[in-house]
């Protein structure tokens, strides 16, 4: 037998299993490992981002096209096909926080609301008193509200377990357990961050004066996208999905608003 025909035995550097072949049967690490260089590092980063069957860009694309079906596949066992959902959400939260602070999006949004409130106060029966009250309230809460909004995705990450309780209760007949609902909401909220960047941040950079319009557009887009995800994942009738979806979203928004108000009060 020639050297080319011999099968090489390898000891895995990760779990120390001895085996033959290209991949470790115990932990799936490649047999061919190498010392990291700048070239290898660049390749690993490019591979992780763009890999056609499990990269983050692939997950973003698939979550945009079929959010509920992707989640069904993931909880059904197709784990290797997709980028890790928790890592995906954490990355998107970090990007959203960075971009919103750099663009000053929420500061401008808060100022627009304050200006609108003052305009409404000026048209009231007692404009001077209402205007003074609106100005004082605006100055008092503007920085606090901006701090909360800048980190709203981080708060959303903390609220996801609560949202998952609601989806589990409202769609319990679908047969998915609580943790499977948790995975749905993790993936959906990760994609919603991308939608926020595209629908709100990008047009804001071009037309900052319309910041309230972009925020309202994002809220509408997020509700529609979430309902589509629920329809695909829970596989219930459209009317039932819309009613249940809107009801649980309203309850979730009320909870999130009350919790956020507590945070603002104690900032």
Tell me the fraction of residues in β-strands, as a range. Answer: under 5%
Q: H/E series, N to C?
A: EEHHHHHHHHHH
- Report how far the terminal alpha carbons are from each other: 75 Å
Query: Could you give the count of β-strands?
Result: 2
Structural category: mainly alpha
Question: Ranges with pLDDT <50 over ≥5 residues?
Answer: 1-6
Describe the structure.
The protein is mostly helical and 267 residues long. It has a domain at 83-266. 73% of the residues lie in helices and 2% in strands. The chain has 10 helices and 2 strands; from the N terminus they run ββαααααααααα. It has helices at residues 38-50, 56-65, 67-75, 85-103, 105-122, 127-150, 152-170, 178-206, 211-234, 238-266; strands at residues 9-11, 18-20. A two-stranded antiparallel ribbon has the order 1-2. β1 (9-11) and β2 (18-20) form a beta hairpin. α4 crosses α7 and α7 packs antiparallel against α10. The chain is globular, with a radius of gyration of 24 Å. It starts with 8 loop residues before the first strand and ends with a helix. Residues 1-6 have low confidence and may be disordered.
Offer a few descriptive terms.
267 residues; mainly alpha; 10 helices; 2% strand
Could you give the topology of this structure?
Blueprint: E1 9-11, E2 18-20, H1 38-50, H2 56-65, H3 67-75, H4 85-103, H5 105-122, H6 127-150, H7 152-170, H8 178-206, H9 211-234, H10 238-266
Antiparallel strand pairs: 1-2
Helix pairs in contact: 2-3, 3-8, 3-9, 4-7, 4-8, 5-6, 6-10, 7-8, 7-10, 8-9, 9-10
